Amino acid sequence: MPLYLEIIICVSLLIGGVFLLIGSYGLARLPDIYMRLHSPTKASTLGITGVLIASMILQSHLQGFLSIKELLITLFLLITAPVAANMIAKTALHYRTKPINETQGDDLMEAIRDRKSPKQPPEA
Predict the structure, then answer these.
(1) Is residue 123 part of a domain?
(2) Are the C-beta atoms of 113 and 95 separated by less than 8 Å?
(3) N or C: which end of the chain has fewer CB within 10 A?
(4) pLDDT, greater one: 42 or 103
(5) Cα(60)–Cα(53) distance, integer angstroms
(6) Average of pLDDT values for 89-113?
(7) What is the radius of gyration, based on Cα positions, of the chain?
(8) Tell me: the pLDDT tens digits for 30-64?
(9) Considering only CA atoms, which of 91, 117, 89 is closest in space to residue 103?
(10) Angstrom distance (rounded) from CA 9 to CA 60
(11) What is the total count of domains within the chain?
């Protein structure tokens, strides 16, 4: 295998691994569900994408033609991970899960829950 392919694969695996590690750490350390949603969503989209791109490059080199299985998995994850995070956030709002006290904009949660538009400030 050429050296440049090995370097690209290693860099892609390292980037993916770093995002997965940071995402796992954030999932364990962040205080409430609304903050915890951000961490695994980024980990799954960016981390797994890095690993799958490395796998796609390696398999394409070994097979002699473009391996699209990994590309299809990556596209599926890029589409479904944000949608799943949105559904989890809506469920937390529906069950009236309280955010931590330092959360900004928590007064808008009732409007979001009831699907109202937030009150606009009067124009001067």
Answers:
(1) no
(2) no
(3) C
(4) 42
(5) 10
(6) 78
(7) 20
(8) 888 888 888 888 887 889 999 999 999 999 999 99
(9) 89
(10) 12
(11) 1
For the chain, the residue count is 124
DSSP secondary structure letter of residue 108: G
Does a structural domain hold residue 11? Answer: yes
Q: Which residues contact 117 (CB under 8 A, 6 or more apart)?
A: 111
Q: Which residue has the tokens 């569900």?
A: 33
Is residue 49 in some structural domain?
yes
Residues spanned by the domain of 65: 3-113
Q: In this predicted model, which residue has the larger pLDDT, 114 or 54?
A: 54
pLDDT at 12 over 60: yes
Query: For residue 116, what pLDDT is reported?
Result: 66
From CA 72, how far away is CA 16, in angstroms rounded? 17
Residue 120 has φ and ψ, to the nearest 5°, of -85, 140
Tokens of 29: 């350390």
Tell me how many helices (H) and strands (E) the chain has.
6, 0
Whether 118 maps to a domain, the answer reads: no
